Amino acid sequence: MIGRCRLNMKKIFIFVLISLTSIMTVINIYNAVANNIVINWMSLTSLAPVIIAMYSEFDWIYVTWNKLRSWAKNNTVAFSSSFFVYTDEQKSYAELQQRVSNAMKTCKFTFQQGVSREITSNYYKTGLKTCNGLNFYLSISIDPCEELNVINVKLDYQISSRTVKNSWSDFKKFRDEFINGLATQKKRYNIVIDMKETGLNPFYRLTLKPIKAKHLDDVCLKFNENGLNVEITKNRIAASAQDPDLIDKIIKQYIPLTSVY
User: Fold this and answer.
1) pTM to 2 decimals?
2) Domains of the chain, residue spans
3) Check: CATH 2.60.120.260 for 76-253?
């Protein structure tokens, strides 16, 4: 508690210093313009440490800046979303195929041309396409247990970081139609955002001391927040929950341009 108070006091002190410096700089520029005095623009370089301090100390600036960078760069990420349905009903391949067809109509998905389908007694995989021309893969597997059958439906995308939110929205529409009328005992939802190809990291201000960055091969953080299980590694973030609304936090808040120091 004492440590937290000291940290808050430090932030307040830094904020006051930054505010005073910024205000005095603005006043000096205003006075120079009002009195027709030649402005020494080199003096504005004194704002550089102020801006750096603000970026380092205040989370909202850090988050906003990195989200803007992410939006501008629009890097490619591998996005996987899946749901597990536990049911005591026996479902044939034909019944599951009908559910897929109904969900495709609702989401306006079509089959990819030239992509073969993999079909076995307990596995199905095919290529689909959105109405906007985005290609992705759908796979369904059935794992019969002693009391319940586990149906795993997975959608795999290779998309830009800006498209993750829309793809997650399509996934939820597909899920709603697929499980409509299906007696389920339990459900679970998973997502994985993989940024390995671009080398980006989902870490938010992670500082590891005294380990040097060049000696850091891998790192893994796992935590649970009100039923949301999250695992973050160097270029990957995964989340799992029984309520898909909890995963919305990850979709909206992950920052794919922070660094591991």
Assistant:
1) 0.72
2) 2-57, 76-253
3) no
